[in-house]
């Protein structure tokens, strides 16, 4: 899964199959949280010190299509994701693969993070996959005052379940900087259930919001709406190692190495 990091291109059926198998398989996963219909698992992938997490939950009052739309809709993301400070739709590779820029706030004195992510999705009706991984783009180096984070893989597997849906979410992200890996893993385990709660509330409110905000605009489902979208030049997405700006006057502990305090 990790070998795609930094590489932009069209996903194949085999790529989606690997994510599906990761979501459905239990080999190597350790259950670290269970409450009601939600479970959180973790495992170490390869030599990475950052743990991969998997969450599974069922919702009886959110349809698979509504959840898929909620995850996709960039306009709505600004409303429900209070951590996001900036997002840019850079362009599309094809109707099922796009690239975007995303920046999030943090708690002082930890510096904000930003990402350039390729999203890839597959909708086969009763089952839907939405996956992301970090790539590069010449026009979007790390923003001043930010640390460029790396998403090895983020994947949502959504399946119809009667009038509701089952969601399996996997995430493997290194925020970079000098935050100790043990602290990243501990915070991730605590935050995972809260992320599910936030997504659930967003999905419940989405139909009413969408009815008032470009209700027919769903390019992830209607590719003809992408006719005027900017096309990605893969020549601008060559893998690279960014040299992080460290003298930004913020005095953050990325430089002072006090994050573990």
Automatic annotation (TrEMBL):
Example GO biological process: lipid transport
Gene3D superfamilies (UniProt xref): 3.30.530.20
Main location: other
GO terms under cellular component: cytosol; membrane; motile cilium
Gene Ontology molecular function terms on file: lipid binding
PROSITE patterns noted in UniProt: START
Domain START: 27-208
InterPro entries named in the record: STARD10_START, START-like_dom_sf, START_lipid-bd_dom, START_lipid_transfer
Cell compartment(s), UniProt: Cell projection, Cilium, Flagellum; Cytoplasm; Membrane
Keywords: Acetylation, Cell projection, Cilium, Cytoplasm, Flagellum, Lipid transport, Lipid-binding, Membrane, Phosphoprotein, Transport
SMART domains for the chain: START (SM00234)
Stored Pfam families: START
Domain of life (superkingdom): Eukaryota
Protein name as annotated: START domain-containing protein 10
Organism encoding this protein: Pristionchus mayeri
